[in-house]
Design a protein that fits this description.
The chain is of the alpha/beta class and about 220 residues long. Helix content is about 40%, strand content about 10%. It has one domain: Rossmann fold (3-Layer(aba) Sandwich), CATH 3.40.50. It has a four-stranded parallel beta sheet with strand order 1-2-3-4, with helices on both faces. Helix 8 links the parallel strand 3 and strand 4. Helix 1 crosses helix 3. The relative contact order is 0.15.
Length: about 220
Amino acid sequence: MGAHLPAIIVSVDYRLAPEHRLPAAYDDAVEALHWIKIAHEQWLTEFADMSSCFLMGTSAGGNIAYHAGLRVASKVVELEPLKIQGLILHHAFFGGLGRTGSELRLSNDPIVTLSGSDHMWELSLPIGADRDHEYSNPMVNNGSDQLQSVRLAGWRILVTGCHDDLLIDRQIELANMLEEKGLRAVAHFGEGYHSIELLEESKAKELFGVLKNFISTSCADFH
């Protein structure tokens, strides 16, 4: 990806469930942002534009990017000189107790099965929580109160997905909710399955094009 985008990519490690249940991964992502703002690594200090940062994640990473963004949206001053311009939620992993049409239609999907998705939530949500917890279901209570901070920060949010991914309906619901709340949401949904870009080069190139356009237009808006 780094070879195709005008960006420096920082890949963030995070603690895994079930040993470390959520919100551990969100805490680790926020900690990484604070590390970046004070890091003295040459490749950051000399080559990175700290005023044009995007939080991106795929699948579980998309969920983490979303919740990390919510956590820091009201504290942007604390991150300076790092400035976040937007979120990129690619094939973001969300869930809920009620079944969506795509979950029922694709319950035996070879990449992500419905039973497998349920089991991952059982292992990662706080003890005693169900899939309608805010960490899993961003639609609960008509969305997080922190979305107002995201709107005021002026961030753009790209939500991407594929129509043969059992998670697609939840991603579409999220994109629609963000737009209804007045956030600067951009949706890009196409053909394919969960994490198709890892297996099909043409789809990876298509994604890189979408990302490059989103990043360049977002930066142009801010500058």
